[in-house]
Amino acid sequence: MSVVIVVGAQWGDEGKGKVVDLFTERAEMVVRYGGGANAGHTLVIEGVKLVTHLVPSGVCHPGKACVLGDGMVIDPHTLLDEIKDCQSRGLLMRNELLIGLGAHVILPYHKLLDGLREDHSAKRGKSIGTTRRGIGPAYEAKAARKGVRMRDLAKPERVRELVAANLDEMIPLIQYLGGETPSKSDISKWIDDALAAGDKLRPYTGDAGRYVDETIKAGKHVLFEGAQGCLLDLDHGTYPYVTSSSTIAAGACQSAGIGPTRVDAVVGITKAYATRVGEGPFPTEIPGEAGDRLRKAGGEFGATTGRPRRCGWLDLPALRMGVRLSGMTSLALTKLDVLGGLGEVSVCVAYKLDGKELDEPPTDPEDIARAEPVYRKFPGWDRLPSEAHDIADLPTSARAYVDTIQGMAGVPFCLVSVGPDRAETIRLSDPFA
Ligand code: GDP
Ligand code: IMO
Ligand code: MG
Description:
alpha/beta; Adenylosuccinate Synthetase, Chain A, domain 1; 10-stranded mixed beta sheet; 4-stranded mixed beta sheet; 12 helices; 20 strands; globular; binds guanosine-5'-diphosphate; binds 6-O-phosphoryl inosine monophosphate
């Protein structure tokens, strides 16, 4: 029996979807543990692409249980669309899905508020650059103990009461932010639609915590799939430029209701370079044409919003922070192929701030923005062979890059990914072993 958590080591979009798909071969159950449809996880299997937002990325392995943890915030309409897409591909046909009854429901006013806040803050140059999927407002309602949960969708009266109480407080806020006051008919449509979606989702709902615990106790391999990345964590990330959930490995325990003593391994996923979507400090960001070239080579456009991702060099201080925050036992390095063809590759090995050298980012975001990256340059390499299955198949300079960053990150690599497809992978060790 092993419990393995997969977690993004940077600012999201590291390739978690691809790695979760690969690791699901060995697991009996995959549990998505945080966030909502702000996530976009891309799988490519024999050239066919599937993007998951809510459904765990283990979905392409029929018969494996896919669980949505209680710590998630779920847009029921997005989830229904996703289930439909999966079923049209012959997936999720055998009772594989279980949605935690404690997960919170995203309602249209959460999305409305998210967008209005972003627009309002943008006027003062203060936006977060959220995905506008209602994530922040839904987690706010949860923390305020006013949220609507999946279990409530079975009780129309309770939903009506909760929504009315929420809107009493929110309508003045919507008006303050310059939004249109929702009409009575808007509100009753929001409720009716949520209830109708709840009816369709009900066969998939249940006690996720018990199910996960029983599966672990039965000696099965269980995989937890993180969304976003460690540096977007609400408590430990680059606040306020973060998401509203616990994205670090601890979030898996919190979301699924299992104790930390259950966890055997934590695999962090890191790109061979760095990207960030939305606002916030990003010291290794590459401005101008060089950044554009990396974006184009890596196809760095958001899987959820289509926004161009900001691109930069690998940031080892930030990676070390992710390793520490999640207690990573190994790392999967992705997108090494994207750096092929560059004459030279840089890596930030430390930050310089006020004359001092730092091995991790400072805690204040203003200090992070002021910090100067200290770079180490590596000779580049040509295109990597996509059929590389062994580290020895890589050019010498790519191998030197991998060896050096492995040493400086402080944990071993369990996998090196050299292309988006499942097959384009060098496997080094099995996290379930
Ligand atoms: P996630 O949110 O962490 O699951 O990552 P995304 O799916 O949002 O973004 C990662 C993107 O990189 C996807 O389009 C993947 O198909 C792609 N990808 C994953 N690994 C590799 C790789 O090793 N090389 C290349 N070129 N693309 C990869
Ligand atoms: P995956 O799982 C990259 C970012 C947004 C924004 C901040 C807050 O695909 O790696 P939110 O909508 O969550 O309130 O936005 O967090 N963000 C992500 N960036 N990948 C993600 O998910 C993200 N989910 C949220 O861009 O900066
Ligand atoms: Mg993504």
